Amino acid sequence: MEIFSIHDMDGFIKHIRNGAAQSIRENYTDDLNDFITLSQVQKLVMERSMGVDENGCHLITEDIFDSIFEDIRSSIYQSALAKLAAQNIIECAWDDESNEMVFWTKTS
Length: 108
Description:
Layout: E1 3-6, H1 9-24, H2 38-48, E2 58-61, H3 62-86, E3 90-95, E4 100-105
Antiparallel strand pairs: 1-2, 3-4
C-alpha cells in the first residue's frame, strides 16, 4: 500500500472537487460552491487522512483518495438533484421500501 503526502492542500482540494464535478458532466460550469465548498472538501480530506507526516502534510492512500472522490461526486450529484426538485423541474419523494430518496421527471 503506497502512502501519498498532500503538500499543497489548497491545490489538492480544488483539483479533486473539479475532477469529481467533471466526472458527472464534462465542461462543468456551475458554481461548485453551490454544491460543496472547498472548506467542506478540506474537512473531508482531513477526516479521512491517515494522519500527518513530519512536515504536517496529510497522508492518504489511493483507496482513501477514491473514497473522498466518490463522496464529493455524490454530494455534487445529490445537491444538483435537490436543486432541480426545488425548482419543480423534477419530482422527488422518500421511498420507504428502498430507504432512499427517489427522483423522476415531471409529466404534463
